[in-house]
Amino acid sequence: MDSEPTAARPNAVPPSDFARVRRLGKRGAYDRETIDAILDAAPFCHVGHVVRGRPVVIPTLHWRAGDTVLFHGNAASRMLETGAAGGEVCLTASLLDGFVLARTGFHHSANYRSAMVFGVPVAVTEPEAKLAALAGFTERLFPGRWATLRPPTAQELKATLVLSLPLTEASAKLRRGGPIDEPEDLDWPVWAGVVPVRLSVDPPVPEPGLAPDLTPPDPPRWLR
Amino acid sequence: MDSEPTAARPNAVPPSDFARVRRLGKRGAYDRETIDAILDAAPFCHVGHVVRGRPVVIPTLHWRAGDTVLFHGNAASRMLETGAAGGEVCLTASLLDGFVLARTGFHHSANYRSAMVFGVPVAVTEPEAKLAALAGFTERLFPGRWATLRPPTAQELKATLVLSLPLTEASAKLRRGGPIDEPEDLDWPVWAGVVPVRLSVDPPVPEPGLAPDLTPPDPPRWLR
After folding, report:
1. Which of A23, A45, A130, B129 could disulfide-link to A62, CB 3.0 to 4.6 Å?
2. Per-residue pLDDT tens for A145-194?
3. CB of A81 within 8 A of CB of A99?
4. CA–CA separation, B143 vs B218, rounded Å?
């Protein structure tokens, strides 16, 4: 319910009327640096599309490559099956950063970073482009792993659906900092502050029977 | 890309044709126990709605109360402003549980739990019901905290928008377990297994000047 001003930055992506943050506009940001950082930090996203006039929101893995955000075919499958392919999507990637505990319920809030990308995704069909896209996906999470894998067959590559969405209509929204209480509430005798939340990793679990000399990859650097 | 069969359970929520999981149907689940557990474990969700024919997906905080899932007004504000209020939403709450690392790119996957709820949300307007809803929201994260807060004023209560969505059309989808590689790939010399991911909390950060005898609440039990 509260906010603190978002630092103004040069707009690399001028917001369309549609992408403009409607509520708490001072939390909005439209610069590519902010949008890219959120897309890169979020390991997965939610893709919304419209099926026979109804909204459908599906989680999927995404990754950014320059001026496009790529995402995996599981979200696309439903789109294809329902005839929604070719239609517009809203891809939203969000990270919860903390629970903001105020002295009254009304000023409780959450710290978060969220990026929204609007557009019509296009399937990456050219084999070399698709290969590069998939390599980029693995490398963004586990650098160096792609070259160590059994290379994909032509059939596997064909069976993998990768969609590409240009970063032309996008916005970010975020909240940082502690609660913003009413001045007269500051002495209310209850703990107030932020409980930070983040994604973290636990020790890797090897497959049964794995050769003991094979070592697990380092976890993505932002999850350590 | 892989899956393992989801345990069959009695269907408390018969899936509509629309809510039925389209892809990898064996990952689908429709029982309320599974759906409720995911909604209760996810601290936030993504709400999709349709604005002038275009999908819009917004992150927001949600909480379940019996047979309804409640969510906060920030998602609703845009719906109200754009005239989408009264329309259908798709509320999807997802938890990433791990990166699944196979011997080839094609069989890499993610472990996750995701619940989707379809329906037309209704604003909770009756003051006592709204008060109970907000108390439930705080209590689900920080049990015992609501009673310690400065009680909301009538004006604060009025300014808070809570939407309620019945759990009548819902489904869950999840993946668990290790990678499912081709038998001929099992000896490929690369580490394979699962890198578990979870939401975790860091030590609470008190507000500056907070009385030192005030102690922070325990973090939500599933985030410790």
Report:
1. A45
2. 999 999 999 999 988 889 999 999 999 999 999 999 999 999 999 999 99
3. no
4. 8
pTM here?
A: 0.88
Tokens representing residue B34 in the block: 């599974």
3-class SS letters over A97-119: EEEEECCEHHHCEEEEEEEEEEE
Q: Is B160 on the interface with A (CB under 8 A)?
A: yes
Interface predicted TM-score of the whole assembly (ipTM), two decimals: 0.88
Tell me which chain B residue has its CA closest to the CA of residue A170. B56
Residue B89 amino acid letter: V
Give the domains, in start order, of chain A with CATH numbers.
25-123+164-179 (2.30.110.10)
Contacts of B149 (CB under 8 A, 6+ apart): A102, A103, A104, A105, A188, A190, B138
- Chain A residues whose beta carbon lies within 8 Å of the beta carbon of residue B53: 50
Q: Could you tell me which residues come within 8 angstroms of residue B199 by beta carbon, excluding any fewer than 6 positions away? A: A96, A197, A198, A199, A200, B43, B95, B223
Structure-token match 């009327």, residue found: A17
